[in-house]
Amino acid sequence: MKEIRTKLLEGGRIVIPVEYRQALGLQVGDEVILRFTDGEVRIYTPRQAIKRAQELVQRYIPQSRSLADELIAERRLESEDD
Question: Residue 73, Cα to own-chain centre: how many angstroms?
Fold first, then answer.
């Protein structure tokens, strides 16, 4: 995607160009996550942030292991102890 210049508006607002909003699937009122990394501001949708976190975790967890199943089993054990 090409680089686009925009201006900082009153109150610290910037306009995200339509091409970028469409590429991110953003609509008016949608929530975004801003991350400041290495001197850059990056914009993520919550869905993208979740996907990125899942990809990071999957690097360290074997595919044969289900963290969700383990959590459910732990919660069941805890509830039996009460």
Answer: 27
Rounded distance between C-alpha atoms, residue 13 and residue 80, angstroms: 52
pTM of this prediction exceeds 0.70:
no
Q: How far apart are CA 66 and CA 63, in angstroms?
A: 7
Residue 31 DSSP label: -
Q: For the beta carbon of residue 24, count every other beta carbon within 10 angstroms.
A: 16
CB distance 30 to 46 below 8 Å: no
Residue 77 CB coordination number (10 Å): 9
Tens digit of each residue's pLDDT, the chain (82 residues): 688 889 999 999 999 999 999 998 999 999 999 999 999 999 999 999 999 998 998 899 888 898 899 999 999 999 987 7
Three-class SS string for 4-17?
A: CCCCCEHHHECCCC
